[in-house]
Amino acid sequence: MRILMILLLATAAPALAEPTLLKPARVFDGEVMQTGWQVLVDGDRIVAAGAGVAAPAGAKIVELPGATLLPGLIEGHTHLFLHPYNETKWDDQVLHEPLALRTARATVSARKTLMAGFTTARDLGTEGAGYADVGLKAAIDQGIVPGPRLIVVTRAIVATGAYGPKGFEPGIAIPQGAEEASGEGVAAAARRQIAAGADAVKLYADYHWGPGEPSRPTFSQAELTSAIAAAHDAGRRVAVHASTPVGMRRAIVAGADTIEHGSEGDAAVFKLMRERGNVLCPTLAAGDAIARYRGWNGAEPAPPGVKDDREAFRLARAAGVAICMGGDVGVFSHGDNAREMELLVANGMSPVEVLRAATTVNARAFGLDDRGRIAPGLLADLVVVSGDPGRDIAAVRQVTMVMKGGIVQ
Known about the structure:
Blueprint: H1 2-9, E1 20-28, E2 33-35, E3 37-42, E4 45-51, E5 60-71, E6 73-78, H2 90-96, H3 99-115, E7 118-123, H4 132-141, E8 149-152, E9 157-159, E10 179-181, H5 185-195, E11 200-204, E12 206-207, E13 216-217, H6 221-233, E14 237-242, H7 245-254, E15 258-261, H8 267-276, E16 279-281, H9 284-293, H10 304-319, E17 322-323, H11 338-346, H12 351-365, E18 382-386, E19 399-404, E20 407-408
Parallel strand pairs: 1-5, 6-7, 7-8, 9-10, 11-14, 14-15, 15-16, 16-17
Antiparallel strand pairs: 1-2, 1-3, 3-4, 5-18, 12-13, 18-19, 19-20
Helix pairs in contact: 5-6, 6-7, 7-8, 8-10, 9-10, 11-12
C-alpha cells in the first residue's frame, strides 16, 4: 500500500505540482476523531479540511479506504546521537565512538523516526556529540538527508561533577555527556549553547552523584532560576531533567516549560505543576527498556523503577498535569517511538488522549503554532495509518504514508 501511495502522490521537488485531496476513512484533527472529512493540500500547506471539501480543477484525488489521517506526530524526547544501551553502553558511546560514526548513525535514526510517522522531534541532548545536532538539523532542512523537523538543545547543561562518564582517576579531565557549569556560569552556558544554535535549553535539576547512588538535587534554586530566565529572555523554551521532588519543585518554581521523567514525584509536586502549567514528559518507555536490558521479561510484579514510573504517572494524571508524549528514544531503538504511546495507554490514558499528547499538546508545549493539528494554513505534515488508532493505539505502527511539507517521503 505504501508503494501505491507514493505512486499516487509522487511529484517533483520542492512541492506538490498540483493540489491533492486526501479522502481517508477518518481524520484525527488534533483534538477529536472525525469521519466524513477530506483534507486538501496545496504546496506545503493544508488549505482546507472538513466534510464536503471539494477538489479544485486539476486536483489529484487520493482515496484512503479504511485508513486514518493524522497530523504529523511530534516526538517529545529523543536522542538521535544515542542508540540502544543493550547494543553499546552509554559510557562507551560517549567515550569511544567517533563523532563521525555517531553522526552517520544519527542520520539513519532521523530517517527511521520520520518514517515511523514523526515529522517533528525534540532532540534533548547529543550526549557527548557536541553541537552535531545543529549540523544534522541543517542537513535535514537543506534536504541532504531525510528526517523530522528538529528542535535541538545541543550539549545540555549539568552541574559540575554531577554527570558522567565517571570512574576514572580523580583529577583527570574526562569528556562528559553534557556541558558542566555552576553558579553564574549556568546562565552563561545557556547563552553559549543558544549562540551555537540551540532551539531550546535543557538543564539537569538532579542526578546521581556517584555510581549506585540515588538521584539528588544538583543545581540550586538560584542557578536554575537564572538559567531559565536567560533562556526565556532569548525566546527559548526550557526542558529540565528532574526526578526527585526537590529537583522537580526547584525546576517548576524556576519556570521550566517541561519536566522530563518525574519518576519520584509526589502528589504535592504534581499539584504545583498543574498550578504552574508545566508539562510532564514521563518517558515510561525508557525505564521499561532499561529494566528489560537488566533481565526483566515484562511479567508482574514489575521492577521497582518501573513501579515508580507508573505511580508517578498515575499521580500526575490525578493532578491534571498535561502530558507530553516522548519516550527518551535512543535508550531504545529509533523508529520504535510508538512504544511510549502504547505504554501511556497501558497505564491509563485513552488512545485519543495519547494522540493529542503526540500532536496538539506537544505542539503547544514546544511553541509550534504551525503544526500539530489538521486545519487550514498549517504545515502539510501528515501521516496515514491503517486502522483506527483512536480505538487501538497500536495502529500508529501501521504507517502507510508520511507527508512532510506536502511532499511524500
